[in-house]
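User: I'll paste a sequence; please echo it back and then give the predicted structure.

Assistant: Echoing your sequence first, then the prediction.
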Amino acid sequence: RMAYREMYVAVNGPIPEGLSALAKLTSEQVADIRSRHAAGGVSFAALGREFGVSGRMASYIVHGRSWSSEM
């Protein structure tokens, strides 16, 4: 894992706050997925397509199986 972090930093510079070196989403995007799902009317599949993750991952995010609240 450390090699990926070092490669990212070498190519892109410092890792922005709120972004894990291996994460596809920022903490702000995760919060957006959760709030939009809570508001209703948006499927996990639609959220996944919009944010570049699978519908299953969107479901995991909403239900706290991925991206803990502390992130």
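The chain is about 55% helix and 0% strand. Residues 27-39 form the longest helix (13 residues).
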